[in-house]
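Dear colleague,

As promised, here are the two records you asked about, laid out in our usual form so they can be pasted straight into your sheet.

NAME FIELD: protein one
SEQUENCE, THEN STRUCTURE:
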Amino acid sequence: MMVMARQWVKSIVVMMLLVVGGVRAATVLTVDEKTIVGAIGHYENGALVLQLKSDETVTVPMEDVTQVTFTWQERVAATPSGDAESAKRSPVPQWWRVEFGETDRLTAELVGWDESGVKLMPEVVGGELVVPSDRLRAVWTMTESLVKKAKEISVTARGQDVAYVSRDGEVRAVAGFAVGCDGEFLNFKYEDKEQGIKLDRLVGLVLSQREIPVEKEMYQTFVLSAAGESISGKILSVDKSAFRVSVLGGGNGGGNGGGGAVPIAKVDKITVKNGRLVWLGDLRPMLVEEVPYLDYMMPYRVDQSLVGGALKMLDGVVDRGIAVHSKCFLTYDLGGAFEKLRMTVGFQHPEGKMGRAALRVVGDEKVLWEDLDAKGDAKPVLLDLNMHGVKKLRLEADYGKDQDVGDRVIWGDAKLTKPTK
């Protein structure tokens, strides 16, 4: 009992040193499924340097990291005593919910918009951020009642942007082209004329659907403590209380040292993209072949079921995965960059309990795994496949013996790993 008590006290003391002394304590998960708890000392040559104890450090290449998390105590310990950026803001900021990139969202002031990009002063991230115009998806006011009215409007605007404008509590939609913003007016071209829409009347702006450029290099997504907010970029450095980050797509920050300062105190977790571990669902298929059985198409979905719910198989829920309905073939261009593909294959429950499908994993036209009579009530199968040299990967969910009844297949927790350098 005395030995156990001493060990428990020692563990508490070590954690106190990491949180109070290091002020950047974090839990780091690696591709090899190791867990490292330590204080983030600094970032150099693409690696985190962690202090495990007062006299011991470990260097972890960022490409070997899958996730970094911070507890509530760790974030509080990293909170700076003052907020220098707050003093730079206007007395009463006009906040917007800005959506950009694949999934990024921030609450920010709209400072301007010109050929260099959209200039934002985020509520959380320190310093001005410049988001490339081709990565902007939407801008919404913080007045929920007006946003609700705007989203209820049915509008057809093929290839055009849509501005939602309020007047006397009502909202109308205008199709045209956003051409810039000076911080007071949105410059909007419609009916062949450029007009200025005052920002205090703007409810929202939805940009025409466009394909966001795919980022092929490694980057990090910072999931913030503010609900639903995140920002993706590349870590430039780490100082006492923040990560200095450059926005994806060539955007820059106006803070000291370049890039925007993401306070550790506001970060829930950091996920690493395009490192040694790559989730298959994060890749865009080079070819999608979907054939409905009775003219009812159920397109494949990533990280959610075919109806938008959780991915639930016979033995439980998976957080990541690809949901498909027969017949669906998904082909990915891997370029021979990976060595392993690991995933769990099963059916959505309870909807797919009666399913029977022919399933295959094909690499460069060679069958790597198959079950030509997979059943919905069978235990999900764990796969660990060799991907060495595979350039084209195809996941096939074909009709089974009962045609397409219940063929709701999940390629669960599908992850690719690259070889170590």
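NAME FIELD: protein two
SEQUENCE, THEN STRUCTURE:
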Amino acid sequence: MTKRYQLDPKKPRQLTPAEARRLDSLPIDYSDIPPLDDGFFTKAVEAWPPAKQQLTIRLDADVLNWLKANGRGYQTRINRILRAAMESAPPRRSRSTSAPKKNTRHAAD
């Protein structure tokens, strides 16, 4: 009979001292990573996490209670929920900057 284990990525098991020594003794293979030239570092920018902006928001009491029910971090949960909604939405077309067209009526002849 084969025994199956379910690994929890949030709680990885500790390596035994022998496993840790074996991993430390093996060199890391970087052959599949292209070398980075100076141009890469001149163009590099820090893009994550995006800057936070403080705001005031009104939520229904039951929604706020649901968010706070899991303890600290409810504002982070709000941000994650909104980010997931934003990233799953289809891309919006940008609005035209031209003046809106006037609704013209033609006079009856």
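A couple of things worth noting about protein two: Residues 14 and 27 are 21 Å apart (CA to CA). The helical segments are 17-25, 38-43, 61-68, 74-88.

Best,
R.
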